[in-house]
Amino acid sequence: MGEKYIAFDVETPNYANNRMSAIGVAVVEDGAIAEEFYSLVNPETHFDWFNINLTGITPEMAAEAPAFPVLWEKLRPLMEGGLLAAHNAPFDMSVLAKCLLHYGIRWRPRVEYICTCRTGRRLLPDLPNHKLNTMCDYLNLDLDHHHAGSDSRACGEILLHYLRSGADLGPFVRTYNMMELRTERKSERKIL
């Protein structure tokens, strides 16, 4: 369990899913959650009622929060510290990539990540589904669903369950192309 993982989760303000209204990060290291970070994010765009109802984050709550470029200064060292992980990771990876592109922030062109949902389908095939709340119920984990801090912690705990079970996570690592906003096929992967 020597590898470091950065479990993260984002919430979005509207259907476009190209900005964040909140982000949570749970750093998994040495068999435990070693560090956590949570912040609301001022998305500098409109909120849809659906997203407000889902996350509980209102425009008023986010108005005083830092915008993504300010928050990125704190996030970048965390996000560069290990292998990224998220539950339904292509969604979270795409929101992160879209925020970076929107604000003209240059980061890595390709980022390796692991999806705890996709991994769960293979490692826990008997569950009725692999939604975050279903997996948390199965593993007896606390969850305040659609709160980015709680969701990122749950993702980290699920990852720890896989590691403690002796799973080889190597085959589940994927590469996200941050410029093309998509997961690369194995045949496209290049050394990062």
Which terms summarize this structure?
192 residues, alpha/beta, Nucleotidyltransferase, domain 5, seven-stranded mixed β-sheet, 7 helices
Task: Describe it.
The chain has a single domain (5-188), classed as Ribonuclease H-like superfamily/Ribonuclease H (Nucleotidyltransferase, domain 5, 2-Layer Sandwich). The protein is an alpha/beta fold and 192 residues long. The protein has helices spanning 49-55, 59-63, 68-79, 89-102, 116-123, 132-139, 148-164, and strands at 5-11, 22-29, 32-40, 83-86, 110-115, 173-177, 182-183. It has a seven-stranded mixed sheet, sandwiched between helices. The model has no long low-confidence stretch (mean pLDDT 96). A hairpin with a 4-residue loop joins strand 6 and strand 7 (182-183).
